[in-house]
Design brief:
The structure holds two protein chains of two kinds.
Chain A (H helix, E strand, L loop, with lengths): L11 H17 L14 E6 L5 H12 L3 E6 L11 H10 L4 E6 L4 H6 L5 E7 L5 H15 L6 E5 L6 H12 L3 E5 L14 E3 L2 H4 L5 E4 L15 H8 L3 H4 L7 E3 L12 H4 L6 H18 L8
Parallel strand pairs in A: 1-2, 1-3, 3-4, 5-6, 5-8, 6-7, 8-9
Chain B lengths: L2 E7 L1 H18 L6 E6 L2 H17 L5 E4 L30 E9 L3 H11 L6 E9 L11 E5 L6 E6 L8 E7 L1
Parallel strand pairs in B: 2-3, 2-4, 4-5, 5-6
Antiparallel strand pairs in B: 1-8, 7-8
Classes of the chains: A alpha/beta, B alpha/beta.
């Protein structure tokens, strides 16, 4: 396998291999020397056409802990602002002799386009409203860590599903593992994903009943005032996760959030910090999962 | 082309060899003080556990046993088409100033041992590393030799050695396979 462009392109076996391998990398992160020589001499470019601190930092740490050389390429400082085309930018980067390109772009499908045009391994770090595969992998890893497996679990995904690549990747992944998926949010923000066997709830209290995990999504502030929901206050009242609502879920349900959080908009502060919250575990696990992905993508130049 | 398989060691042979190596380890180190065993995944881990049981029977002392996976330290990662599976590394104690007996099933080119030593060094600074192997089949590519050898078996590069152990649900035996 050369690239990781989306969960849709992966088989269940490959996902299991990535998650099992990540377990070993999590052990590496607990050592005094948190670095292994596995990818020594390889070069990675983090190509971010959209602002990101968390995902980029997580990738960068994963890359450094695998002993790769890391180059960061972000839009405001690059020649993209001088009008260079995406294709030329990528071809130039490839001419530097890089082995991996980690890419985030505001348009869906860009990683797929690049993967088909370069020999380097391409990893999708989020493309438009399409997919964010490493986030779904780290979410699955975090759930398995707490619950033992995904099979038969009831998982609620709450918020702006329509614009969320995190939600889409998670839905694709969880639907392969026999998970009962519930989508909760305002009707304006829930797309038709019945083909993945999801249940839709517009009423949050109803949707949270007996769930094992609650995945909160960030409300993108730029969506406010575009008619998707009346106001952030009203959003919090209807679809925000507070302590009272958390009690509707199973007693040992875990609370997840891909970050960055808007406290008081989609999640109450005390919920974010409560013992059931695994939000910081997700951050740690993200590094291990990204290390596993980079290790498993062979990065060999001639295997197309 | 038919494949020829010859049995080199049976269950009894392996039993005798591990007993002897256990005694050699105690003799060479004058007891068990500061000793620990680290098996290389996978065969070496099983053998390390067996050695620790043998040593306990003689010295009435439990030597700590760890497992080491060397996948991330291999020198052929950039050459192989598929990266090897990463198995568990579990060394739950500080190895600094310890005498480590590294255990592997087959010693061949010496490259796995080089990788294992690099991996160990990332965990601390052991006082000493010694090497115990069940089979030494020759063909070294690095200046590495074992301190404890179960059996020396001169082989051709076309042959392969297969160590089967009960811990993996097989009958204890060592086989030599020749492709003709």
């Amino acid at each position: 396998m050369k690239d990781l462009v989306g969960i849709k392109e992966l088989s269940k076996d490959v996902i299991e291999l990535i998650l099992n391998t990540a377990l070993s990398f999590k052990d590496v992160l607990k050592r005094d020397i948190k670095k292994v020589p596995a990818l020594r001499g390889k070069t990675v470019v983090n190509l971010f056409f959209e602002p990101s601190t968390r995902t980029r930092t997580s990738f960068e740490l994963a890359e450094k802990r695998l002993s790769t050389d890391v180059l960061n390429f972000s839009v405001p400082t690059s020649s993209v602002v001088k009008g260079e085309s995406l294709f030329d930018t990528v071809k130039t980067i490839e001419a530097y002799g890089v082995d991996y390109i980690v890419i985030r772009h505001s348009s869906s499908g860009v990683p797929h386009f690049i993967a088909g045009n370069v020999n380097a391994s391409v990893i999708n770090a989020g493309d438009g409203t399409n997919e964010h595969p490493t986030q779904a992998l780290l979410d699955a890893f975090s759930i398995i860590e707490k619950k033992g497996s995904l099979d038969g679990l009831r998982i609620a995904i709450v918020g702006d599903i329509l614009h969320s690549r995190v939600a889409k990747s998670n839905i694709y992944l969880l639907s392969m593992f026999g998970t009962n998926i519930r989508l909760i949010g305002p009707s304006t923000l829930i797309p038709d994903m019945r083909q993945y066997g999801v249940e839709v709830f517009y009423d949050m209290d109803e949707g949270l009943r007996d769930v094992d995990a609650i995945m909160m999504l960030r409300i993108q502030m730029e969506r406010q005032g575009k008619g998707f929901f009346p106001s952030t206050q009203e959003y919090f009242k209807n679809w925000g996760l507070n302590m009272g609502r958390l009690k509707i879920a199973k007693r040992d349900a875990i609370v997840m959030h891909p970050g960055p959080m808007n406290r008081g908009v989609e999640i109450a502060s005390d919920v974010a910090d409560c013992p059931q919250s695994v939000i910081l575990d997700q951050v740690t696990n993200g590094i291990a999962v990204r290390m596993a992905v980079m290790y498993l993508l062979s990065g060999i130049k001639d295997n197309g | 082309m038919p494949e020829m398989t010859k049995e080199l060691l049976n269950k009894k042979d392996i039993e005798r060899i591990t007993s002897r190596i256990a005694h050699e380890i105690i003799e060479k180190n004058r007891g068990t003080e500061n000793l620990c065993l680290v098996g290389i995944q996978r065969g070496g881990v099983h053998l390390a556990k067996r050695l620790s049981e043998k040593i306990r029977a003689v010295e009435h002392f439990d030597i700590p046993v760890g497992s080491l996976d060397i996948a991330l330290y291999r020198d052929d990662l950039g050459i192989r088409k598929e990266h090897p599976a990463v198995r568990k590394t579990d060394i739950p104690w500080d190895i600094t100033d310890k005498k480590i007996i590294l255990v592997d099933d087959v010693l061949f080119t010496g490259r796995s041992i080089r990788a294992a030593m690099d991996a160990l060094m990332d965990f601390g600074r052991p006082a000493q590393i010694q090497l115990a192997v069940l089979i030494d089949r020759g063909h070294r590519e690095l200046p590495i030799r074992a301190d404890y050898v179960g059996k020396n078996i001169p082989t051709s590069r076309l042959e392969s050695i297969e160590v089967q152990l009960e811990e993996d649900g097989l009958e204890d035996k060592v086989l030599l396979q020749t492709k003709q």
